[in-house]
Amino acid sequence: MIFPDFDPVALQLGPLAIRWYGLMYLAGFAAAWWLGRARARRPGAVISPAQMDDLLFYAALGVILGGRLGYILFYDFESWLADPVQIFRVWEGGMSFHGGFLGVLVGMWWYGRRIGRAFFALTDFIAPLVPLGLLAGRIGNFINGELWGAPGSVPWAMQLSCANHPSVCWDKLLLAPSSVLTPPLHPTQLYEAALEGLVLFLLLWFFSARPRPVMAVSGLFLLGYGLFRFMVEFLRMPDAHLGYLAYGWVTMGQLLSAPMMLAGVVLLILAYRKTES
Asked: What are the angstrom distances between the C-alpha of 178 and each of 1, 162, 163, 214?
């Protein structure tokens, strides 16, 4: 199967290019806002529907600033030292989920202080909404033709044009200069969209449909995301300039996801221990 090489620009308005990746972010925020307002109408909700508008602003700010800073710190620090201004060139790409996640946590702490709500009450509220943004973002990665997996023999593996994806061919796969196409590659963006997006959303949505102890929903999110991301990283090719960090298989994504799994287990234990005492 040949990757169709989508045009990353959805709409060109004179000098303004509206990209699919940006539209996917907007779609994720819009879906989270709509479902968040629906959740806020439930009896006993931690925030009101009107407050959901402000919460989304703080969360979006955390995603964008944290995601960009996280990418620079975790994945491209040496390049940033050589060219510090690149942090502002967001149109060139480079966003980190783990950085965006930390940014959202800061945003929830900040907003919680403003409205007098406990930190974990807010994180429990937004946790089921986050996978919608992950789903949209991974589809954006697929449209952009980035974050590919290793070669694989599954029927849905895709070959890329070396002319259109030189970094995959020459930097990651180290193919011969005469190569026209890559070997079939795992579309790990779609695996992550399915697991971190759809499956995690359904898991958290139905888990949180009934009253749960404080921290339980947040703990399940951390455990679920960390586990799914850790699994997919076994198939995903690491960034060429980072490679594997240890043992010929440990990636930066796994290194950053392992503490999430541990924190998730700890939060779930603390949440249910509180209810028993």
From this structure: 20, 10, 11, 58
Torsion of CA 116, 118, 123, 126, to 10 degrees: -40
| pLDDT top residue among 79 and 164 | 164
What ranges do the domains of the chain cover?
A: 9-276
Tell me: the pLDDT tens digits for 178-237? 899 999 999 999 999 999 999 999 999 999 989 899 999 999 999 999 999 999 999 988
* SS3 at position 76: coil
The residue with tokens 């996801």 is 257
Residue with tokens 């964008």: 64
Residue 171: closest CA among 99, 237, 126: 237
Q: What is the pLDDT of residue 54?
A: 93
Residues 6+ apart with CB under 8 A from 216: 124, 207, 267, 268, 271, 272
Residue found by looking up tokens 């403003």 in the block:
114
Query: By the 8 A CB rule, do 179 and 237 touch?
Result: no
* Residue 270, SS3 per DSSP: helix
CA distance 132 to 1: 28
pLDDT in tens, 44-54: 889 999 999 99
Query: Minimal CA–CA distance to 212: which of 220, 201, 223, 222?
Result: 220
Whether the CB-CB separation of 140 and 21 falls below 8 Å is answered with yes
Give burial (CB, 10 Å; 0-12/13-18/19+) of 14. Answer: exposed
User: What's the pTM value of the predicted model, to 2 decimals?
Assistant: 0.89
pLDDT in tens, 134-150: 999 999 999 989 889 99
The rounded distance, in Å, linking the Cα atoms of 167 and 173 is: 9
**What is the structure's pLDDT at 96?**
80
